[in-house]
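This entry is listed below:
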Amino acid sequence: MTLKNIKESGILIFLFLVFLFVGPSLLFFIRIPILPINVILYFSCAILFYYFVLCKKIRKEKVVMNDFLKTIGVSVGVLLITIFLSCFLFDRSSDGDTYHKDAIGVFKEGFNPIYQSSEDFIKERKDESKSLTTYSIWTDHYAKANWILASNFYSFTENIESGKAMNFLSLYVLFTFIFFTFYQKWKWIKALIFASIISLNPITASQLFTFYNDFLVCIYLFLAILFLLRLDKKETVEDWLYYILTFLLLSNLKFNGLGYLLVFSFFFMCRKLYFAWKNGKFVEVFKKLVILFLPLFIGSLLICGYPTYVKNTIDHKTPFFPLYGEGKQDIMTLQQPHKFQLMVPIQKLFYSTFSKTNNLRENDNLDLKIPLTVSKSELVPATSYDLRISGFGIFFSGILCISIIILLIYYKEYKKDTRILFTLGITSLLLLVMNESWWARYTPHFYLFAIFSIYLLFEYGKNKKKLLSSIYLLLVIGNTLIPLLGNSYYCLTNSLKIHKGLNDLRGKEILCDVHGYHGIVYNLKDYGISYQLKEGLDSNKVYYDMIDYQVIDDEK
């Protein structure tokens, strides 16, 4: 295995994930549901696409063909390892065990979002005790790419936790693209560190073992920005293709993901048109962009996004129902500290960035702190899946201040490369106009300040202030290691307990009270546990004390 095999495996897995979403989305139109063979089928499609479209040399040179077979082997190995890890590690997050698993479960069982609602799907099967519809408003109206991806893995393995393989695979894709973008211009250790810092940041480190889709939004937003930056410097057919594929996925992951993608893309295309105008090629470039983006919008939003954007518009007069429109759901007011309700966006952003780490939504104690200081009260919240206050980590307020200083120090060196300030300008605009920019998992682009500051140190720092640069680098890494190590420890220990608890109930019939965590019933089904739902139980505990149950034979 060589570095080239790793690079090509990242591309191959990227193609696989896109096919795994686009393929089933198209088949929904002809009433074909998620099938157990999909993982193998679309991995094969990815191989064929790579072979016939991207690698002309492979068909001519036997040596290159042998190398490509190694790439396939690496890709298969990565795929199997990620599926195994995902099956073993349980998601204990609130969103994951409620509406995310609920949606993944009905997709796996045959739900077709084009022709029916998830609630009608359950009722038609007369199987309401087995699958719950409490969260049907989200299943029917939210963007669905993450659920479609996860349900394909679920159908393949009969273990709903395997759906988290999409996280590990996406992380691998981003890492490989970042690493090999900078591998040619830096020493390999710098490229390795830089790719790791971008891929494993405080958002992805917190949600790696969950079904929270902010993880994927962060991954593919950073990937989209990477391709926009590369295209801004030098256009290649491959980078346009990768950008288009990223657009297909990100636009269907989450409403805010689509919004961020459109904003960054709009400004970068305006920049491209501006330079074309200066060179007397405006009309030529404008036509090219129209020819590119018109079918891209149709394919992403009107075809693949039909069950979400088109149906929402037809039924509710807005593509972003239930967040907007008549009958909209307010999901934010109760999720924030009470004092935030009286603040404007910039105030919320300031307090959420420079306060002590805190995740109690009803807590009004927004305690400002001196950057880079730590209190004992911050350590436990810092490992939360969806940290609200100081959500980018205990040290992020200090990291942000230092990153701004670095941007000022190296301005003379990078001022000719206007892409840096241009990208951060878009980021700042989004932070200022978004009402909920205070919540870190909703604003992954805020982390670009830290990313670009490290880029400047690696690109221009070299032998300047090496000790101080190393300390800053360790600070950034440590800030991410806190949620990563904390979540890894809790996920592993909890998963061992959950495995034992579910194995002890394998083959039995139980009464259970899921306490709102309706997605966990799919874990019960995967372990061959027959169940009947009953509220008010307070007896035995399973799934790390999240479910009360009573074995029916014991009750008799």
